[in-house]
Specification:
The chain is globular and about 35 Å long. By secondary structure, it is mainly alpha-helical. Strand 3 and strand 4 form a beta hairpin. It has six helices and four strands, in the order ββααααββαα. The chain has a two-stranded antiparallel ribbon with strand order 1-2. Strands 3-4 form a two-stranded antiparallel sheet.
Length: about 130
């Protein structure tokens, strides 16, 4: 039963029934629960408050390291497209497991016109240990 649900930021769960372990529907569902309140369902964020993920160079980078580390450890004070974002992004390191984080990252890397290489759960696990 522990593998039947994904734990989310707010302590609620998202059913995994019928979803592939790292499938696009699962990534979209986890993104919706954990990320969309700030970055919006469209990935456009809120100007000057929460940065867009659509078209973001970190999200689209061939090397996903910075993207993974940002989601694991959170971030604050980034300047993106000449705009400073002071709102803190929470760390998901202790909230979501490697599979769930990889699903969210892959959703971000392949949505809203983004076309970045996918990440694996093992990539998240490796960086989580650092």
């Amino acid at each position: 039963a522990a593998h039947a649900r994904a734990t989310t930021q707010r302590g609620t769960t998202v059913p995994r029934a019928g979803l592939a372990p790292a499938g696009p529907a699962r990534g979209a569902a986890l993104y919706c629960v954990n990320c969309a309140a700030c970055h919006q369902n469209t990935g456009q964020g809120l100007p000057g408050v929460f940065p867009p993920l659509a078209g973001d160079p970190v999200v689209q980078a061939l090397d996903p390291t910075e993207h993974i580390v940002t989601v694991l450890n959170g971030k604050q004070g980034s300047i993106i497209g000449g705009i400073k974002y002071a709102s803190p992004m929470p760390a998901f390191n202790g909230i979501l497991n490697d599979d769930d984080l990889a699903a969210i990252l892959n959703h971000e890397r392949t949505s809203w016109g983004n076309a970045a290489p996918l990440v694996r759960s093992a990539d998240v696990a490796r960086l989580r240990k650092k």
